[in-house]
């Protein structure tokens, strides 16, 4: 059983794709993709527990800090570069987006939508920084230094001239309800984007 | 890294040890052509094994040793042995290289001074000791001889070849020279080539030995002497590169052996005492000619050289998954050197995992137990066993 955003990504990954998974965690996605879709590639991770889990399950994982960029990876050498729940923790999410599409033909990005209605209630009505399943940390110890909304990310893609191939939202453990498809910025808890360079 | 002078107290052998081990010798009569152009007509390799070779013969793990290493990687030679083999922290029942699952083969490389044919062996052609006449051997020569040992033991394919430092270089060589004969490669605290600084340190060590008046151009045995001072200096300078500045600082700081400065050149600081002890111990147990040729093997290793410096191309023949491990404070073969290897593997499209272990112990960290290192190492080896269907022996 995979996280909701991972399940959705699973469906988007083509058979036999060469994939780079940024912040691959314990390697669940890559393991499932390699077993069921014959996908090859590497995971990058910095958390020791995640790396140990990847190695134990036989996922190729490279200890790497994403804030150092993807310098070692060649241009357009991957079919797909995936980054789940890490965008908001990077020093420069915009530069990482450039890097992802330099290295890969397509990118899939997921992040917590700060404009999700529950988050709005926390901040707008109660006057506190939101704490939720997708944003579990307190304001003072959160690794999430660049929170953004569904709309913010669309803006960034537009500014960069990127094409949004697909987008979706996740709510809790489920894929989005019809309300979240209609008003993703309000009802989507997790934003999921599939982007590529405009040719 | 011995911490203190060996104690004379005999303690029982720990339960997670491979126990009492007797080295064995394999003799080879087929001449071995060496990279330097010379041919070794016949030779011995001394080796130890731990665990049991299974019926499928697919559970063998090869251990490749480092500069001053040898075949005695785990267990004890006698109950009076003050300390176990050099990699006992990682080889044994329930340890990273679990001898309940794996059959471990550990040898002394050619040119060594612990029982395999080398400078201290008898040269049948001249009737004297080989001494400085022993041909220069390289990493690829070692691997060629290790393949013969595998044949001798009936091992078609190793479940893994594992090595730290110079041992890691042998593992790299295995993956490209004999890709069909290893299923996994573990390269720890190594580098795809020595830096100018590394070669410089080796040259200081060699000069220390060669300029010792007792060296006699390598024929010291015939003069009934040993270039002890040279070997000691070589080891002292080498040892500095094995430790990190922090490790040395924590261990010795500026501690004095006596309370006051005595304004002389005798040992005053604890670190001086430690280095002198390390040097003395080494100069009494290691052969100078062996040390010289092993440092040259290190200097010469550069698999990318014949591919115009393109390491990815050099690695093209490799077929097996790699685990590459470095240590944060290793300044002899620092993490960027391992990363260089990993990046080349990634651009060659080879399966590789890379871990940079946080350790204060410098290059020596690869020999020591450390929680994260052990978790990674044992996790990887368990996966190797699982993939090959290797079961725990009862």
From TrEMBL, chain B:
GO terms for cellular component: cytoplasm. Transfers a succinyl group from succinyl-CoA to L-homoserine, forming succinyl-L-homoserine. This is Homoserine O-succinyltransferase. The gene is metXS. Homodimer. Substrate binds at residues 235, 364. Coiled coil: none annotated. Residues 59-367 form the AB hydrolase-1 domain. It is found in: Cytoplasm. Keywords: Acyltransferase, Amino-acid biosynthesis, Cytoplasm, Methionine biosynthesis, Transferase. The lineage of its organism: Bacteria, Pseudomonadati, Pseudomonadota, Gammaproteobacteria, Oceanospirillales. The record marks 332 as: Important for acyl-CoA specificity. It is an enzyme of class 2 (transferase). The keyword Transcription does not apply. GO terms for molecular function: homoserine O-acetyltransferase activity; homoserine O-succinyltransferase activity.
